[in-house]
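FIELD: query
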Amino acid sequence: MHAMRLLARGEQLKLSELRLPPPAPGELLVRVEACGVCRTDLHLIDGELPDIPYPVTPGHEIVGVVIGAGAAEMRFAIGDRVGVPWLAWTCGECPYCLAGQENLCIRARFTGYSRDGGYAQQVLAAAILFAPVGALIPTALAAVRPGGRVVCAGIHMSDVPGFPYRLLWGERSVASVANLTRADGEEFLRLATRLGLAATVERFALEDANRALERLRSGALKGAAVLEMPGN
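FIELD: result
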């Protein structure tokens, strides 16, 4: 299959041939239909995340169809349409996992970072957007009511500038979110369906991933960038 791979820090992605191993027990093989392009992918390419396992396939906002499954009973069947998020695997044994906080798992693995992601025709998977710009936090605080909360979901964010205390006063708060749990994703999808949310996207072919990333880096994107796989 074809994949856009990051071979070394600071390089552009290279269109490569890649053969995935058969899905292990508890894993799915997914034919990728589309993959979102996220600023975290730029942080990966720029070497701003620790312990990057080169070479790696970026991409963690994946939609696709199950085409294979490992030898274990699972909730998904061949032909099911599925999504694959940032949180790829958790241990299920550490204090955080046992407390229902798998998003804080000390041994967690992440799609498109510690595992190959969705800038590819296939991927192995376990079965509130906020721009990562610190300068937006004072602006957001100024817009929320007393008792309101500004939640920062970015994995990497630029520094937060100083701001007057009056923006925080009135029991306003600022919090971060670490990765989200898989249950959070399922709850959000049910909510998005009920509300009829529609996304604004710019579509790119897989081999145009570098152009999509440059448009993201420069701020030229209108909405979100999505890589579409050949044949879909």
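FIELD: remark
The mean pLDDT is 85.
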